[in-house]
Task: structure prediction
Amino acid sequence: VQLVESGGDLVQPGGALRLSCVGSGFTCSDYGMDWYRQIPGKPFELVAQISSDGETTSYADFVKGRFTISRDNTRNTLYLQMNSLKPEDTAKYHCFSYFRSYWGRGTQVTVSS
Result:
C-alpha cells in the first residue's frame, strides 16, 4: 500500500499549485481521504476532507475559499488545488486515507517572494 504526493514547489504569494496524491495497493474509491499539513515544530493541521465518492467535502477555516479538494477514483488520485497562496501556507502537505490510516510522505510547499 502506498500514497505518493507530488506537486509541491516554491511559489510566490498569490500564486497557485495543484497537489496530487496517487494511491496504490488498495481500492482508494472505498475510503474517504484528507489533506493535512505540517509546519516544523507544530502539530499536523487538517486542511481538507473528501468522502469516498467525492460528493462531500469540508475545509479548515484558514483555507476556505482558496483551496479545493477533489478526487478521480478512476485514477486512484486525490487532488488539492491551492489558489491565492500565502506565506503562512508554507508547509509539508500529506495525504491520508481512512484505509488503515495510511499516510503519504508529503510534498513541500513553500510560498515566498
